[in-house]
Design a protein that fits this description.
The protein is flat and about 100 Å long. 74% of the residues lie in helices and 0% in strands. It folds into three domains: 171 residues, no CATH class; 161 residues; 90 residues, no CATH class. The protein is an all-alpha fold. It has 25 helices and no strands.
């Protein structure tokens, strides 16, 4: 099989006997492809330098801005239009805003979630801008689009970058030969200078040495700097090829049709193997069990809504924890059951009034479970305060509640539930990342502790929040009379100041760290002596 025709751009006329085994249409790279092939090296290096090894700070925001601008420019040139329209504009803006949040605060409580979400947005925005999804837009085939986008398109076009550069080289052989000759001459001259300059300095009376002092930085060979550069440069080579393969593959709609829409829909149709009576029986039994479970323990089940713990539970934590995660898992499983029932039922939903009724009942029962689990978590937060592990499940439950409402709406109106979930989930996550949940957690806990509605201020939450807790910690430090707490807060504040001093000149730095550094430095500088 012809490598140039299969994994990269094709040039010239391939052998006709070999063309029959390869249906990929040859594409000749134009000037835009060649320019972007060169720019991809810069983009790949900056990703390696600012993002790959840290996923923190203004470097991620700067790279995301460069990436989004590059994607927009490439698509506008390719489409011969200066306007970005439709859902592609939504995804590229969501990607940029998510990347911008890295420059604002570290978001330590979010863990790898923010970086993973940013990566998914970065790759999907290119597909959305070029409208190369299997269905031409975000729809029920989103999972296949993701598989195609992350693995198939980039790796089947992985050699496009070098093929484009080779094509340009073949078109301008004499010019490239002249450039190479000049570069070779510069390299030989530099090597000669390393030998000749020391000899000239030895015979110099002082004038030549003054001239060379201004160039001494260029002639000093810094092993550490070279090693650091190579650490960043080596990963940037495959990264650049991956990014260019993604852009060129989607831009030329090349190797994007591995999965066909008709074939995918047909594959889903083949899953409809379960008789309708079997589906209705399963759903009916499950609904009966759920209703029996709820009505058999109404006081216990809904006591969290009133803020009271039922009899038999000595502490709030025991009651709040018991059943919370089980109810959350049950809600997620119910959504899976509804999906399976509608996908595998031989009788389609539009033709089955019974299935529509079961969908509504299951969605309502799931909403009851979500509301109950949320009330337990709210009770737990009221007694023990906020933490990130308590906020994230609440966000997930809110998302599932919206999906349940969408399931109910689907029984009357026709729309893609996957499309709704994708846009809704993206908006929720983007808003979560921009509102700095770590700072919200610590601020609320600090205010409640100062006001007397929270019995204890947990300094472990401060440590996990990073610089997000500095301003609330200063507030508690100035108001509390607990000396042990003040000692722990002072240790935390000093640690944050030292961490900020260490990273102020790196791409991992962010606005919140700078604000925290200045606040701590100013406070300790103006603090009256003990």
């Amino acid at each position: 099989m012809d490598t140039w025709n299969e994994g990269a751009f094709s040039f010239g006329q391939p052998d006709k006997t070999r063309l029959s085994v390869n249906t990929v249409k040859p594409v000749s790279p134009d000037r835009t492809d060649v320019v972007f092939a060169l720019c991809a090296f810069v983009i790949g290096y900056l990703f390696s330098r600012w993002v790959f090894f840290s996923w923190q700070g203004w470097g991620v925001a700067a790279f995301t801005t460069l990436y989004c601008v590059s994607a927009a420019v490439y698509v506008c040139i390719r489409e011969k239009s200066l306007a970005l329209k439709g859902e592609g504009l939504f995804w590229i803006l969501t990607c940029w805003l998510t990347g911008l949040s890295f420059a604002l605060f570290p978001g330590r409580g979010l863990g790898p979630l923010r970086g993973l979400f940013l990566f998914c947005l970065a790759v999907y925005s290119v597909m959305s801008l070029t409208k190369t999804q299997i269905g031409g837009r975000t729809d029920n085939l989103l999972a296949l689009d993701g598989l195609n986008l992350v693995f198939v398109i980039p790796f089947r076009n992985f050699l496009n970058q070098y093929a484009a550069l080779m094509a340009q080289k073949n078109k301008n052989k004499s010019r490239y030969r002249a450039y190479f000759s000049v570069l070779a001459g510069i390299a030989v001259a530099l090597l000669s200078l390393y030998v000749l300059v020391p000899l000239l300095l030895s015979a110099d009376s002082g004038g030549f040495a003054k001239i060379m002092d201004s160039f001494s930085g260029l002639l000093n060979f810094n092993n550490t700097a070279v090693i650091r550069f190579m650490i960043y440069f080596l990963p940037s080579i495959p990264i650049a090829a991956y990014i260019y393969a993604l852009f060129s593959g989607c831009g030329h709609n090349r190797n994007c049709d591995t999965f066909k829409k008709d074939a995918a829909n047909k594959a889903v149709t083949t899953l409809r193997i379960i008789p309708a009576a079997t589906v209705y029986t399963v759903l009916g039994i499950l609904c009966g069990v759920y209703l029996a479970f709820i009505f058999s323990q109404l006081p216990y089940f809904f006591s969290a809504f009133s803020g009271k713990r039922p009899e038999g539970f000595l502490v709030y934590s025991e009651y709040a924890r018991r059943g919370f995660f089980e109810l959350t898992q049950l809600a997620a499983i119910n959504l899976g059951v509804v999906t399976a029932a509608n996908t595998m039922n031989r009788k389609r939903r539009p033709q089955s009034r019974t299935l529509k009724v079961f969908n509504v009942v299951f969605a309502l029962l799931t909403l009851v479970f979500i509301a109950t689990a949320f009330s337990k978590m709210a009770l737990y937060i009221r007694v023990y305060g906020l933490t990130m592990p308590r906020i994230l499940p609440c966000v997930f439950m809110g998302f599932m509640a919206l999906i349940c409402l969408a399931v109910i709406a689907m029984q009357k109106w026709t729309f893609s539930i996957i499309r709704f979930a994708a846009f809704t989930g993206a908006l929720i996550l983007c808003a979560l990342f921009l509102c700095d949940p770590d700072a919200i957690v610590v601020k609320i806990n600090a205010d409640r502790y100062v006001n007397g509605t929270l019995s204890e201020f947990d300094t472990e939450i401060l440590s996990r929040s990073g610089p997000a807790g500095v301003l609330p910690a200063l507030e508690v430090y100035q108001t509390t009379g607990d000396q042990r707490l003040k000692d722990r807060l002072e240790d935390y504040l000093i640690d944050q100041r030292n961490f900020a001093m260490t990273n102020r000149n790196s791409a991992k730095y962010d606005l919140q760290s700078e604000t925290a550094y200045r606040a701590v430095t100013e406070y300790f500088a103006n603090r009256p002596p003990d």
